[in-house]
């Protein structure tokens, strides 16, 4: 009985190690793209580094978030206001102001 439990545990640990490796492969960032002069960018120099945040801060992402917030405000205003209290307003405000100033200047703001 003990030997069978040990074998089952080893098999479960091997599957766990394999699934962790698969997750690392999926979640690792893509290799850095070369710059204009052909030299590779150093890792993690772009802001934001997360692909999720890049997608959310793109024009499509902002439109999707805006539509989601608008729909939530129309459908359930009490829940929307409760969730709004959780959002760090100063950080969001600074981000929106820097994006606006960057667009007015004609380029993206430096981090």
Our Rg estimate from Cα atoms comes to 22 Å
Low-confidence stretches: none
Distance between the termini: 60 Å
Query: Judging from the principal axes of the Cα atoms, what is the shape?
Result: flat
Return the string of H and E elements. Answer: HHHHH
Total beta strand runs? 0
Summarize the main sheet.
none
Which percent range fits the helix content? 55-70%
Helical segment count: 5
Average the pLDDT over all residues and give the rounded result: 77
Q: Which structural class fits the helix and strand makeup?
A: mainly alpha
Q: Report the sheet-strand fraction.
A: under 5%
Account of the 3D structure:
This protein is mostly helical. It is built from 5 helices and no strands. The protein has helices spanning 2-27, 51-57, 59-75, 77-84, 89-105. Helix 2 crosses helix 3 (59-75) and helix 3 crosses helix 4 (77-84). The model has no long low-confidence stretch (mean pLDDT 77).
Can you summarize this structure?
The chain is built from five helices and no strands.
List keywords for this structure.
111 residues, 5 helices
Topology:
Layout: H1 2-27, H2 51-57, H3 59-75, H4 77-84, H5 89-105
